[in-house]
Amino acid sequence: MNEKTEALTKKQQQILDELNNCAHEVSGQQLHRTLIETSSNMGLTTVYRHLRTLQLKGLVRCRNLPKGETLYSPVNRDHHHLTCVDCGQTVVLKSCPIKNIELPKTQTKNFELLFHTLEFFGLCNSCRQRQKVAET
Ligand SMILES: [Zn+2]
Ligand SMILES: [Zn+2]
């Protein structure tokens, strides 16, 4: 592993392992619940504090849902989503459309880039059908 992961405490490593074990992104509360089931009796506040530290280390990414919930996943998992604004159905994009995008160097020189987010919103087929029916 790289130097970033060396400095992790046992609990931070536990959280990172758990995020890697989850096939999907998880909220802080879901993560907290899983951690309780598996072994650790970490408090919810502690989980959030460690998530924040891991994010600052560039190991964990997060994205905010329209409902206000925050979902976390490992930073090396470069997934993006297409979400229905009506029912909330989410599709994971097969690849990252902006993986190799170049940002203007003059603007990023004072930043260490950690992660990016990119989201698409729309209406899924069944919600569109429902709208059509309601209109007529
Ligand atoms: Zn929908
Ligand atoms: Zn991406």
Radius of gyration, whole Å: 18 Å
Count every helix, treating DSSP H or I runs of 4 or more residues as helices: 6
How many β-strand stretches? Answer: 6
Largest sheet: 3 strands, antiparallel
For the record, give the distance between the C-alpha atoms at the N and C termini, rounded to a whole number. Answer: 59 Å
Sheet/helix structural class: alpha+beta
The H-and-E topology, N to C, reads as: HHEHHEEEEHEH
What value does the average pLDDT take? 89
Heteromolecules bound? zinc ion
CATH 2nd-level architecture of the largest domain: Orthogonal Bundle
Percent of residues in beta strands?
Answer: 15-25%
Spans with pLDDT under 50 lasting ≥5 residues? Answer: none
Helix content: 40-55%
Q: Fill in the CATH topology of the largest domain.
A: Arc Repressor Mutant, subunit A
Write down the overall geometry. flat
What does this 3D model show about the protein?
This protein is of the alpha+beta class and 136 residues long. It folds into 2 domains: 1-76, Winged helix-like DNA-binding domain superfamily/Winged helix DNA-binding domain (Arc Repressor Mutant, subunit A), CATH 1.10.10.10; 78-136, Ferric-uptake regulator, C-terminal dimerisarion domain (Dna Ligase, domain 1), CATH 3.30.1490. The protein is built from 6 helices and 6 strands. It has helices spanning 3-6, 10-21, 28-38, 44-56, 105-108, 125-135; strands at 26-27, 60-64, 70-74, 81-84, 90-92, 119-122. A 3-stranded antiparallel beta sheet has the order 1-3-2. A hairpin with a 5-residue loop joins strand 4 (81-84) and strand 5. One zinc ion binds next to helix 6.
